[in-house]
Amino acid sequence: MSIDFKDKVAIVTGAGGGLGREYALELARRGAKVVVNDLGGARDGTGHSDMALEVVKEIEAMGGEAMSNGGSVTEYDQMEKMVADAKAKWGRIDILINNAGVLRDKTFAKMTPDDFEFVVKVHLTGSAFVTKACWETFREQGYGRILMTASSTGLFGNFGQANYGAAKLGLAGLTKTLQLEGAKYNIRVNSLSPVAGTRMTEDLFPEEAFKLFDPVNVVPAALYLVSEDAPTNAIVGAGAGGFHSSWVVMNDAVWLPDGERTVEGFAARWDDISDFSNLIAPQSGAEQSGAILKAMQKVTGTG
Ligand code: NAD
């Protein structure tokens, strides 16, 4: 079964480099017309450049169709204009990959309120803004595929990334409500938690891991999750060639009868209330990567 994106129009935010560029190139290879958005700033979100234009040139050089957009996902009017420009040129929008992102890592003790607010604004508010700018079009068309970019930090936690983690779990939450609201309009919404060697992780990964986690290995999951037959409400992890799903889970509720429904009664049953014996719940983002590598070890005997 081959999966193509012929006649589909896709917007990929933050597609001037890293993961977004790989998504844009593969969508174009498979026939999509692609809006390559990127502000072209530094990793911390400062400055801007023509990164998006370079990727458009690459797509055109291989015979594909693309347009560049240098707007910021944090500016709603710029995102409305991006959508209007794409519709003026190609008549519709089918796919949105919310991928743009920045990092301002610090321990919470050292993090300024500005660093917190800025990172949440780019990832969470930015993804909501671009999605909002596309939403009415998706509803009118009775078709839309949206991918949010979550992260192991949001799902499981990572030292020094309070701002980033808050935004990333927020995106999984946004996914859960939008997939409900979009269902009757054939709008499907999923989250992807990638692990990839990009400029975002270049000083965080050891050299070997950087190579192993080539961003191209995330593309199969990303493109399936925005394809015609995509599921909805999935949270998928991908990196290095390993793929998994994550769930928000709970255990069986414990009923406290009237006489026991007190603070002390709750305390007495805490062991049962917090019993997760049958579930897997990673305690850090590193465990997600570790689990991926374990799967690889099982199959290849290496790593
Ligand atoms: P990257 O830095 O190469 O890509 C992010 C892109 O977003 C950059 O090109 C940047 O210019 C662009 N961008 C930043 N602010 C923008 C704005 N306001 N408007 C438009 N574009 C903007 O890093 P990447 O690793 O490819 O990251 C892609 C996504 O994947 C991000 O959301 C990131 O948080 C997420 N992610 C990456 C990893 C990983 O291991 N690399 C892990 C978890 C999540």
From TrEMBL:
Residue ranges crossing the lipid bilayer per the database entry: none
InterPro entries: KR_dom, NAD(P)-bd_dom_sf, Peroxisomal_Beta-Oxidation, Sc_DH/Rdtase_CS, SDR_fam
Residue ranges of domain Ketoreductase in the record: 8-198
SUPFAM superfamilies, A to Z: NAD(P)-binding Rossmann-fold domains
Coiled coil spans: none
Source organism, top-level taxon: Bacteria
Keyword list, A-Z: Oxidoreductase
UniProt GO molecular function: oxidoreductase activity
The keyword Zinc-finger is assigned to this record: no
A Pfam match: adh_short
Family in the record: Belongs to the short-chain dehydrogenases/reductases (SDR) family.
PANTHER family noted in UniProt: DEHYDROGENASES, SHORT CHAIN, SCP2 DOMAIN-CONTAINING PROTEIN
Protein name: 3-oxoacyl-ACP reductase
